[in-house]
Amino acid sequence: MIFAALGLVALIAVAVRAAGGDQVSSLHHLYLLPALWAALARGVTGGCLVGLVAGLVQALSIFPLIERAGPSWSAVDGIVSLSTPLTLGLTVGRLVDQSRGRGAQLDALLDIQRTLAGEGTLGQRLAVVAELTRRALGVHRVRLVLEAGGADRVAASAPAEFCPAAVPPTAAATPCRRLMLPLDAGRGPAGALIAERDGDLSAATRGMAGALALHLSLAIENARLTERQRHFAHELEEKVAGATRRLRELDQAKNEFLTVASHELRTPLTALQGFSELLLTRDVPPERARRYLGHVHTESKRLGRIVGDLLDLSRIESGRGPELQRVPLDLGEIIEANLEIFASQHPRHHFDWSGMGSAPPLCADRDAVDRMLKNLLSNAIKYSPRGGRVRVGTGVASDKPGMVELSVEDDGVGIAADALPRIFDPYVRISNPETAAAPGLGLGLSLVRGLAHAHGGSIEVESLPGKGSRFRVLLPA
Amino acid sequence: MRLLAHRLETERSASLAALAGQLGLVAGLTTLGCALGVAGDSLAGPGSSLGHAFASGSVHAGFLSAGWILAFHGRGGWQGPALRGAGALLVASLAAGLSPVGAVAYLLVPLVVSRDAIGWTARLEWIGWRAPRELRAPFVGVASGVFLGIHLLFAASLMLGYPVAVPDGRRYLAAVAYDIGANAVTAEWLFRGAVFSALWRRWSFWPAAAASTGLALLRYLLDPALPQTAELVAGAMFYTLLLGLGCCALRAWSGSLLPGYLATVAFFAAYRILLV
What is the ipTM of this complex? Predict the structure, then answer.
């Protein structure tokens, strides 16, 4: 195109010469046309080049006139005339470059916004943005360097560079200019935009790079916020799903509890009703009546224990906790008494107590400790085979200073690892074909945990399916 | 941020003092060559042109050597190529002084310089010792030089009344050979190659082009062979200015010294028609 404009200059020169254009005349204005054309097509470079050539061509006719006529208004007129194409080419070319730059900038900004709002990781999107920025600026390389994200930012885990790799390395014959601009959206620099060009970076490119850097920093900040929101939304969704699943499980557990509780409550009630009815309606011999009354007493105690457990659990769940009366206890005495009772009731099980005679002093609620031990022993017997071994241990917790531990270990069916987090929840009974027939409301372990917490202690469990379980209650000394 | 780890400039210059010392040595030798040439002409009496030829060859040898020094950043390795180039220039100058036909020897100078430069291509790429990035660049260079030369001829004939005529063939070819082997080579090698490239790396295009063209103008102003009438000096400055800026633009655009060299040769080929 520039060659065509230069050809036009030559044609005009011939035409002006043929028309006797040695005199300064309006014909010289024709030289403006190729300069204007080149400026519109190629900006400053084209406009200046063709304007310069047009001026030089005009000079061939104007300088001799000036030489002959000497300094005069006509000479000034001639100099203005020959400098006009260059001035016009420069001015129009700059305007064209500016308007093209603005257009490219707007297009690039739209593309950048669209890219940053798109799919993919932030790193992938920034790589595309770097390429778009490179094209918009008309430079050879663009780097987007982002700092490592702070705690409140979602960003690359390490300082990251995003550099389009399509551009070959620069030739050493041409110096490389770099322009580095901070990406600051008002919260401090989040990185830098680095534009590299072989040759010079024009003022228009510098200005455009500054504007793009500002928009880029805002867009990147927005993209980070969006990513953060997505991240939080995902987390929230997972939490809600987890909570919903948990509520469903609890609902199911409560339904199961109601079924089991009805059964567990009805059994002693049936016995109480049956034996009391026999005693009221029939003439029963004293020995048999005594035996019936014994059954009534046992079942009423069982009923009382169930109701007591329910009341305690209700208090614990409501946040009030059981009423504790802390007194110095002889833990060995409690263990010994319970082992004696359980051994008499379950003669086929073997009971070991490793800490006999060396139980540490403990200040706790006697009834609560007794109930915790009973529940743990009851579970150990319930979930271990006949002839199984139940080991009770006590002592100062070596890993928890200031705590006394009470442990019950069995070699029963054990608990699956995924069920372990739920076994202390109320109303939960882990489904297991081997233990399905075992009676229980699913309150025991929950109650033990509640009582331990009420003392300021805790409960831990270790279990292997098929090998057995070990529960360890830790209470403050 | 790994900003500083990328593409660092590893071509470090020798110390400024060492560089100045080397350039001073070349300047001293050039001055000595000029003095010997003038003294030789004085001793030989009128009609002798060998002394003048030797002085002219010394000046161009100095320019060429200075170009090698700057191209090598003042570090070692420039001495051999500079000596060979200077030797070729002095021999060509003396041969041209003896007879216009001897000016053919000037054509050896670009070959000698090219032979040495080819061995150092990687090290000399930064001054533009490489092929142009675009195939049309040499043609654009020739067209620019031709345009300026024709403009000069028209302007000179229209304004100053110099007739444009076909000159004496042998003298004309000798002058063109001088431009091909000495004038254009040293101008491109030193002013557009070493000086402009070094300044362009530190400044932007226009200051670097202005400074290197200013030095080239100074070289022509101080040239005793240039006619000293006011209008000729003004015209020479005008065209040298345009030629210098144009060659800088060609060097920057094409990445190579070749288009500027061709433009210079084409321009001076036209100029010789006028002055010879």
Answer: 0.74
